[in-house]
Amino acid sequence: MKTSQFEGVKVALKQDRTGYILTLSIHPDDLPEEILRDFVGARYQVVMVRLNGNEQPMNRETDNGTDPVKLAGMLCRDTGFQNFLFDIGNIFAASEQEAIDWMVEEFGITSRAELRSKPDAARRLYKINEEFKLWKQSA
Fold first, then answer.
1. Were 49 and a residue from 20, 57, 111, 127 both cysteine, which residue would form a disulfide, CB within 3.0 to 4.6 Å?
2. How confident is the model at residue 60 (pLDDT cuts 50, 70, 90)?
3. What whole-number distance in Å separates Cα of residue 126 and Cα of residue 68?
């Protein structure tokens, strides 16, 4: 069985009475000729993997679709996250600097940029973010 591989970009998603309609933009050089030749209405088994910023398959369980550097910055500035860290005893005062200092120590990094090259630290960041979300729901 021959499979078709190509890269596409999601450009639209709509719904009709039969389900969802996903529209992908595919570069002409990437579109397999056999798909062009198939009749309208042909059925396909589809497997898709989202790519991260490094053109690598994204692991949704760990990547969460959010750049770890960006997430770390957003969390440290978030007063709710600061209060969460204070509430669970990880920092002594709810402040952005305390959150930054905690993150540097907790993840063994000298700057947030290292989160891109340290997958273990990024995984732990996503995990603490999930704990923070649960804490917010219960508060």
1. 57
2. low
3. 8
3: in domain: yes
Mapping DSSP to helix (H, G, I), strand (E, B) and coil, where does residue 25 land? strand
Non-local CB neighbours of 130 within 8 Å, separated by 6+ positions:
none
**32 is a domain residue:** yes
pTM of the model: 0.57
Contact between 98 and 77 under an 8 Å Cβ cutoff? The reply is no
Let me know the angle formed at the C-alpha of 14 by 10 and 19, rounded to the nearest 5 degrees: 110
Instruction: Reduce the DSSP state of residue 31 to 3 states and report it.
Output: coil
- Total structural domains in the chain? 2
Domain carrying residue 25 = 1-48
pLDDT tens sequence across 22-42:
999 999 999 999 999 999 999
Number of other CB atoms surrounding residue 100 within 10 Å = 18
Q: What is d(CA 90, CA 93) in angstroms, rounded to the nearest whole number?
A: 9
Mean pLDDT over 49-64 rounds to 72
- Tell me: do 87 and 132 sit in the same domain: yes
